[in-house]
Amino acid sequence: MFRLIFVIGTGSFAGGVARFLLSRFIHSHAHTGFPLGTMIVNIAGCLLIGVIFGISERSDILSPEVRMFLTVGFCGGFTTFSAFAYENIAMLKDGNFLYFSLYTGLSVFLGLLAVNMGNLFIQKIL
Asked: What pLDDT shows up at residue 108?
């Protein structure tokens, strides 16, 4: 178990650093108020996790540890949006439209609400 936690943590570290560097690079070259760096990172993470799961579903090229390093670790550190998107696609493939709708709607709504409430909470106490 410790080995798996180390593998995932290492991937997460690498993904977080990659997210920072890519976002910073995009921000320094695209002079706009639009969060282009974050959007590109999220889309790139979605593409990457799709490729990794596509490879995993069709072959045994990736060991379970490498798959965990790349998906939970790297992609999770790079962007959790990629996992969110993959889980939604999996529900759609399974024909589970109710859970897809609930998961997507509640995640977006409650996520925005939580960010706002956390911000308001800090504004009140500081």
From this structure: 93
Buried b (16+ CB within 10 A) or exposed e, 5-24: eebbeebbebbbebbeebbe
Domain holding 19, by residue range, is: 2-79
- The token pair at 15 is 């993904």
User: Could you count the other beta carbons within 10 Å of the beta carbon of residue 98?
Assistant: 9
71 in a domain, yes or no? yes
Q: What is the pTM of this model?
A: 0.78
Residue 100 located in a structural domain: no
Q: What is the DSSP string of 32-53?
A: -SS-HHHHHHHHHHHHHHHHHH
